Structure of Glutamate synthase subunit beta:
Amino acid sequence: MRHKFIDIPRQTLPERSVVERVHDYKEYASRMEDGPIVKQAERCMDCGTPFCHVGDMIGQETIGCPIHNLIPEWNKLVSDQDWYRAFERLMETNNFPEFTGRVCPAPCEGSCTLGISEDPVAIKSIERTIIDRAFEEGWVKPRHVQKRTGRRVAIIGSGPAGLAAADQLNQLGHAVTIYEKADEAGGLLFYGIPNMKLEKDVVRRRVRLLEAEGIRFKTGVNVGTDVTIESLRHTYDAVILATGAQKQRTLGIDGDDATGVEPAMDYLTESTRTLGGKSLDARYDANGKDVIVIGGGDTGADCVATAIRQGAKSVTQFGKHPEKGMFRAPERPWPLQPDTLSTDYAYAEAIEYFDRDPRTYLIRSNRVIKQGDQVVGIETERMEKIVKPDGQATFFVVDGSVETYPADLVLVAIGFERPERELRKVGIEANHDYTSNVEGVFVAGDARRGQSLIVWAIREGREVADTVDGYLNTCQQQLKTSS
Ligand SMILES: Cc1cc2nc3c(=O)[nH]c(=O)nc-3n(C[C@H](O)[C@H](O)[C@H](O)COP(=O)(O)OP(=O)(O)OC[C@H]3O[C@@H](n4cnc5c(N)ncnc54)[C@H](O)[C@@H]3O)c2cc1C
Ligand code: SF4
């Protein structure tokens, strides 16, 4: 049999033209038509030992899908145009494929066996098409819970970890209440990831479904201020902390207190709020400004795309690492992620809009230049990266490489602090198995593992739910024995 991947090239979701999309905040990618996506699913060679669904870590690297999506199975079902069974199979492992199908960086594709010699299967595009079609067909309905256990669980935080834990526990019959300090549920899905990647109606649609299935949402409640964890401990049989890891790192250089030096998360959150009708605070408005984004990661990329939409005069992004290569490096063999240079949506937009790639590599910010209290520039130096024979990397400053970049707005996107300190402030220490030092209190998602990915948050939500269910059943047994 001649394999289909020989004749069918990889194709991913269609994207709106840059000229059109930079004028709005709607999603830049759209659903694929059924015909082309069936062809993409046919590219799966149903290899004997697939790695796409392994979902494990090698060192710091994710190998395959962390929630073990049954990818080769749904590829076969899509090839056969058996969309309903593909949807059922997808929902067995993934609570929210409409989120991952839009914004997951798809570690599954980096570990796809076809990727050893050809372009990998377009797994994420297939996943999104299955779930979009399921919504269109009306197959996604509230699943009413037949039998209730009488046990009550409080979940603090409504990001993907909290939502996945709530979904699992609710379906097991426990009564779940989610406490969220923001005015909208969804965590970083709502305030963090911009609309261009994930429209907020997609998040609201899932929250409404979960509500219809019996989960209670209490938004605008800051646990620790409005209500204490101890009081929740007394009211509920178990409490899950899924509070994320949103404390951002600060620059820690001279002048970083200047007006116009803003944390990326505040900037992205405020920008999202304006889409709900709030007027934009001038300090978060990039219109007509020279914008510098410090930090070469995905949060930085989202700032680049947002600044373009606000009408920035120029956008430059500083990264401390060297430019990535076009091909998989020998030290990154399959099934590790290839980690090659990609032109993410934000960069594609900047390249077309400003006629230059905003990314600047191997650069260090030395100090913020101010006029009065206002930032007017950043002084930088160039770095060189040397990798020693033992694999350790060291960075050196290049002599005489001092430069000055003009800036009216500096967005700091240099990562997030580990969550341990925030947890310790409320007397909690998380254990590896989702339990904590306090009986009946559990921790999951970024709050446990540090800033990560949505797909990992979903996995943690599913696993903490298993742990909590086991705990509740044990408590029930003990009660029966003692009575
Ligand atoms: C800008 C940005 C873009 C990203 N883009 C992507 C992407 O494209 N793809 C991807 O896979 N991942 C992305 N990530 C990472 C991903 O969003 C997170 O890993 C994921 O959301 C973590 O889920 P979580 O449920 O653990 O926490 P969060 O999503 O952070 O949710 C935690 C929730 O807890 C609430 N909370 C905290 N403390 C309290 C309290 N005391 N009382 C009540 N509520 C509280 C918070 O308000 C928040 O809503 C991005 C992250 C950022 C910052
Ligand atoms: S959730 Fe992410 S890793 Fe898993 S199949 Fe979907 S795109 Fe791949």
About this structure: Residues 65, 67, 69, 71, 100, 104, 106-108, 123-124, 127, 455 surround iron/sulfur cluster (ligand 2) (CB under 6 Å). The chain has three domains: 4-137, 152-247+417-482, 261-412. The mean pLDDT is 95.
